[in-house]
User: Fold this.
Amino acid sequence: MKYVDEYRDEAEAKRYLEAIASTVTQPWTIMEICGGQTHTFIKFGIDELLPEEIELVHGPGCPVCVTPLEMIERAIAIARRPEVIFTSFGDMLRVPGSDADLLTVKAQGGDVRMVYSPLDAVRLAQANPDREVVFFAVGFETTAPANAMAVRQAEMLGLDNFSILTSHVLVPPAMEAILGAGDNRVQGFLAAGHVCAVMGYWEYGPIADKYHTPVVVTGFEPLDLLQGTYMTVKALEEGRFGVENQYSRAVTYEGNEPAQKLLGEVFQVVDRPWRGIGVIPQSGYDLQPAYAAFDATRKFDVEAIAPPENEICIAGEIMRGLKKPHDCPAFGTECTPEHPLGAPMVSTEGACAAYFQYGRAG
Assistant:
């Protein structure tokens, strides 16, 4: 496949590795934000080919991983209602709640369905006017525009039996929360290219300036990540900070302005709890008051559900760059993809799943 293979060229990869090795002179800790980037690093062994001075730590950019347990419990409570058709992308169905997941609800007779688009859920609401159709709207800025469009479409169609359970989170506040923590180890960021394709990268400059941290917007193929790492190391070695764009084939400074306008119309920015991390101020989307009729949390009165987290799981420390998956005492024993204790072992973007799949035991 020409347009994939050109970003996986072995000779070019070696040149970037040599350039990184000849540039680095001291230890640096770099965090890739996105779980997709984590999987590329681990799958292709890039992390093991980098000079030992460079430590990669894995960020909170896995939407499944950071969806809080209380939101999973709300989803399960709604999905168990007989009048509800509960819809979701597939990777959310296996995320463990306190004693069940959505697939368990389905096995027990709940009408839980996997969809490929929130518009599929809108069509279900049209086709089933006597049922309540709920879509589990999770993810970062990447998936939010499609969910906003689904809500607006439902309003235009006059559907009073469609709603979304919203758990959207935003990348820049999470980056700032990591950098501002007293135990922070991150010295440079590889920012998530697909988020920036929607939002641009104008939001990152003030963060880079405030914390004197280089941020490189990076794609997802091996050469993207190697080039992004090289750009980050070069900036660190030269004492520079600011934002650079490695992923220029897909990302502009301004981003997708019509999508941003839609997001502002349908959603408002709110404080949001992140699984394993806690509440990050102004780090999530919730529906604007004008669209409150489409808010599943209000419609089904499940706001008060807040169960305790599993005490063994160290997902929060992993996603803040403080520990690696193999530092968890349950990794690969009590916690596996078949029997996960935490969301990072469930999701296809989770760091724990990547370490397990590609045999990184330590």
